[in-house]
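Re: that backbone. Tokens:
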């Protein structure tokens, strides 16, 4: 039986409303609560009002910050998890290049464990500015869709937002697992000199204690066909980039499926990445030298 105040058992009550009720009963302001867990008062307000979906991990943080009984913490987390047990359809994301980067950044900011698989390009969090510019410019030029990006300024804003996202790699309490194919290194999406800089960036980030970077060699047998890349955040949401948009699923069943896919692909990858990086680095040096002759 829950010790929830001013309510019999909380049945049918939204989790945000329950948290608000608890907070008021303990005479704690939204600002004070936010300061306890590193959130703004506005974020607390959106959670309590239901304007923001109740993420189970956030609900647990808030409930524990309110010093609620263990059974009540579990009850509230269960309420938050219940909608995610359903198979939720993929949702299309805003088309603007910069908007997409900001949205992904917000999703990533609440994730403690992020797994990324890419079959074609370097993962966004690992991209240098020139590599990111080449990738995002290609989207703008090939599609010619004003809703996606209609100017070089839009690309510049998206590149800036993508680099800001990469600052998350410096947070030691967050874990990042990157899985790429060997082909990713061979896809020359920018000038050889920029590809060399990108390889150097991969080498640098791979040394971070909270980052794992593994490569799937070309000569292995795949247990699952590499249909597309994806980003899996805390085994609760999946993000996939397409040419003209990005799609997101918050369904736990879908996330569970993608976790199994990631684990299967990770099993054929190697953490001995330096031979691959050095080989492609030499290739681009040769191409750069040939361009100068």
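Recovered sequence:
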């Amino acid at each position: 039986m829950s010790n929830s105040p001013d309510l019999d058992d909380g049945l049918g009550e939204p989790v945000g409303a329950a948290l608000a009720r608890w907070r008021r009963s303990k005479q704690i302001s939204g600002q004070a609560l936010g300061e306890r867990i590193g959130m703004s008062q506005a974020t607390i307000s959106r959670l309590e009002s239901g304007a923001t979906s109740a993420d189970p991990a956030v609900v647990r943080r808030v409930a524990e910050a309110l010093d609620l009984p263990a059974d009540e913490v579990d009850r509230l987390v269960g309420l938050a998890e219940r909608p995610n047990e359903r198979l939720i359809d993929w949702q299309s994301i805003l088309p603007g290049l910069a908007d997409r980067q900001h949205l992904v950044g917000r999703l990533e900011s609440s994730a403690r464990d992020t797994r990324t698989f890419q079959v074609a390009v370097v993962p966004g969090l690992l991209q240098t500015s020139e590599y990111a510019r080449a990738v995002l410019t290609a989207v703008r030029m090939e599609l010619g869709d004003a809703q996606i990006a209609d100017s070089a300024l839009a690309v510049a804003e998206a590149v800036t937002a993508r680099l800001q996202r990469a600052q998350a790699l410096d947070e030691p309490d967050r874990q990042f697992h990157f899985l790429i194919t060997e082909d990713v290194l061979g896809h020359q999406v920018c000038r050889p000199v920029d590809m060399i800089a990108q390889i150097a960036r991969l080498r640098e980030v791979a040394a971070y204690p909270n980052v794992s970077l593994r490569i799937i060699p070309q000569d292995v047998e795949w247990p699952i066909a590499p249909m597309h890349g994806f980003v899996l955040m805390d085994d609760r949401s999946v993000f996939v980039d397409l040419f003209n948009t990005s799609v997101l699923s918050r369904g736990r069943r879908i996330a569970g499926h993608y976790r199994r896919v990631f684990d299967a692909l990770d099993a054929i990858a190697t953490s001995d990445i330096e031979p691959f990086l050095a080989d492609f680095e030499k290739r681009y040096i040769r191409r750069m030298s040939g361009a100068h002759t």
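Residues 87 and 253 are 6 Å apart (CA to CA). The longest strand covers residues 175-181.
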